Amino acid sequence: MSTLPPANPKASSSSSSPPATGADGARARRILSSKLYSDVPPSKVPLVYSPSYDIAFLGIEKLHPFDSSKWGRICQFLISEGALVKSRIVEPLEASKEDLLVVHSESYLNSLKSSARVAMIVEVPPVALLPNCLVDQKVLRPFRKQVGGTILAAKLAKERGWAINVGGGFHHCSADQGGGFCAYADISLCIHFAFARLNISRVMIIDLDAHQGNGHEIDFSHDRRVYILDMFNPQIYPFDYEARKYIDQKVEVMSGTSTTAYLKKLDEALEVAARAFDPELVVYNAGTDILEGDPLGRLKITPDGITSRDEKVFQFARERSIPIVMVTSGGYMKSSARVVADSIVNLSKKCLIDMETPSARA
């Protein structure tokens, strides 16, 4: 990948935005009135998590291969390693309906009032049999809390240089369509909030989950302010060929790709991205479903390979003084939580993030 990728419907080097419309005005008003951009004291580190992220309900969550307690276990590992103090974790607010309407249509949000519809999105058929009030409380509310975390993480990244939402990364959800365990489009929401509240006009999405990020690709299909680098296995879900048209830099990694080959492709991809676009914010979708043995990702990346991958992306942002937001996205083995925690510890050791607060350093 020594040359720029072929032209696509977006002129990726441009920072122009879509023309203002009545819908844009309503979006701006919702963002400006939102409470999700709360002030975070300096005593906190820009790592965002809430116990409300974790999904547990009568064991039904075990019917999906995703580890729905992964987020809490990541934090437990970080705390046990001495890398993080529990009291310094940032807890976000839950995204409200008005917040979600910044991207989502009213009709889509109304569709989530059907337990059968939610069951299809989260790929757990028995959810269809539950009262929707329980589905909303036990499944959708944790997702909304994570959406609040991704949105807040952008503000923290602008203020501190980096932020990690221990959850989020629901990259299969677009404004009007959920799927693949993704009910809300947190990445799209995060970016629109950043445009309106952070004086940011150019954002790069680096999506390194094993699956194609078709949700944000559809949402920003004709938005020149957003550049998308998506490195994914084209032989697995979601097979969204329409959304692939809107990827600025498409890097395909076939089933069975090794760590060495993967990291080489990533190095080349980041070089191309650096020449193609000058972002003011990087949103990094850091799925761990590329791990060897993951039943859905089908790649063969070692835990150390994931540590190296994350280090390369954070180094990319640090060298260019670009604020970076990381979300954890997919990962379908119990070992994923440990791998994510180890990678965060490595980022701290390499001084790519600073897990100490000003008061702790004094």
UniProtKB/TrEMBL annotation:
Region: Disordered, residue numbers: 1-24
Catalytic activity: N(6)-acetyl-L-lysyl-[histone] + H2O = L-lysyl-[histone] + acetate
Low complexity composition-biased segments: 9-20
Cofactor(s) essential for the protein: Zn(2+)
Primary residence: nucleus
Domain of life: Eukaryota
Subcellular location: Nucleus
Protein name: histone deacetylase
Organism this protein belongs to: Eucalyptus grandis (Flooded gum)
